[in-house]
Write a structure and sequence with these properties.
The complex is a heterodimer of chains A (122) and B (237).
Chain A (H helix, E strand, L loop, with lengths): L10 H14 L12 H8 L3 H13 L3 E4 L3 E4 L3 H25 L4 H15 L1
Antiparallel strand pairs in A: 1-2
Chain B lengths: L1 E11 L2 E12 L3 E5 L6 H8 L7 E6 L2 E2 L8 E4 L11 H11 L5 H10 L13 H13 L5 E5 L7 H14 L6 E6 L2 H4 L5 E6 L2 E7 H8 L3 H14 L3
Parallel strand pairs in B: 3-8, 3-9, 6-7, 7-8
Antiparallel strand pairs in B: 1-2, 1-4, 4-5, 9-10
Classes of the chains: A mainly alpha (122), B alpha/beta (237).
Chain lengths: 122, 237
């Protein structure tokens, strides 16, 4: 267990985000079966009704599909997957730039810093 | 399965432990009864299992008034130590099984294994954590309609808590049972709950669905409780 949740966001949405990120990272691949609602609840230490909402939301987003009597599976939906990947990248960049602006780093400085950092890092 | 308190008051001497409290609990859900020590949480649970009776109002299980016999249908974990020291773990299980017709020995054995309790050990020699685990085993092994837990995590380390939470989630029968957890350790159980009931000075000061709190007001249960508590703590009650 040991899953920590932020205070301001519904728990079911935080688990949606977590699963999306696992899909984007390729940890869960199209066709993979998700744990049953109860198993997932036990693993995460949360209420099964919460997981049920997570799965319903993932289904609404067309990221998973439930097959009668078999369980819930990651959907083979490349378009949506790609979109998700891009969305997630944009979100991270946006957050990064916002934080840098907050501490007074201009766009030019920022580009320079990134180039230097990446140049040194690799 | 419905458990309800209707306009219930309970006095100990002149002090009201509960003051005109109305609550309803339904099967398939996990409720948190949250409040500081002395707020009336334990009294509420004792009323629901027929250990004490209301001075005013009514406590009902499935529409029938709660009596001493209601404990056949309601499993109750007290905050007190409740075991005989000279018994072994197995003897404790056998004893509880002999007291309650709905006790499921298979489930108990599974739970013992999962929580790594040695059946041959004497209760006397168990650590505090293992006593806590054993209490949970005896309560959760009953096929009761309601499971009431009074401070199940108190004094237990985070590892024990996690194992208890997992067993709860694994073995609760959501189609037939309701789970009510009374605790002041709000953060520990927030992610388990469907609904939170805030109690203070014997009164219900709030009741909310946990996810709605987050969705509509951006509050965790603890933040919500603190807001309520300061509002009611300073004003009149």
């Amino acid at each position: 267990m040991g899953e920590e949740f932020q205070a301001s966001k519904p728990i079911y949405m935080q688990i949606v985000d977590k699963i999306i990120s696992e899909i984007v990272q390729g940890k869960r691949r199209p066709g993979d079966k998700l744990p049953s609602v109860r198993e997932m609840a036990v693993n995460m230490g949360v209420n099964p009704n919460t997981i049920q909402r997570t799965y319903t939301e993932l289904e609404r987003l067309k990221l998973v599909e439930s097959r009668r009597g078999q369980g819930t599976f990651v959907a083979a939906n490349e378009e949506v997957m790609e979109e998700l990947g891009t969305e997630m990248q944009e979100e991270i960049i946006e957050l990064f730039i916002q934080k840098m602006e907050e501490i007074g780093v201009s766009k030019d400085q920022l580009i320079g810093m990134l180039q230097r950092y990446l140049g040194e890092g690799r | 399965m419905v458990l309800e308190l209707k306009n219930v008051s309970k006095f100990y001497g002149k002090t009201a432990a509960l003051n005109k409290v109305s609550l309803t609990f339904e099967k398939g859900k996990i409720y948190g009864l949250l409040g500081p020590n002395g707020s009336g949480k334990s009294t509420s649970l004792k009323l629901m299992t027929g250990l004490v009776f209301p001075d005013e109002g009514a406590v009902k299980l499935n529409g029938t008034l709660v009596t001493r016999k209601t404990s056949e249908k309601v499993a109750y974990l007290t905050e007190l130590d409740m075991f005989y020291d000279v018994f072994t773990v197995q003897e404790t299980i056998d004893y509880v099984a002999s007291q309650f017709a709905d006790f499921n020995k298979e489930k108990a054995l599974q739970l013992l294994q999962e929580l790594k309790l040695d059946p041959t050990k004497k209760v006397r020699s168990l650590s505090k954590g293992n006593r806590g685990r054993l209490k949970l085993v005896t309560t959760l092994s009953r096929n009761a309609e309601a499971i009431l837990l009074d401070e199940p995590f108190s004094g237990l380390d985070p590892m024990v808590r996690d194992s208890i939470v997992q067993s709860l989630l694994k073995y609760l029968d959501f189609d037939h049972q309701v789970l009510i957890i009374a605790t002041h350790e709000i953060n520990e159980i927030e992610s388990l709950l469907d609904e939170a009931v805030a109690i203070q000075y014997g009164k219900v000061i709030g009741q909310e669905k946990v996810e709605s709190l987050r969705e509509e007001r951006g509050l965790s249960v603890l933040q919500w409780f603190k807001q309520l508590s300061s509002k009611y703590g300073e004003g009149e009650i």
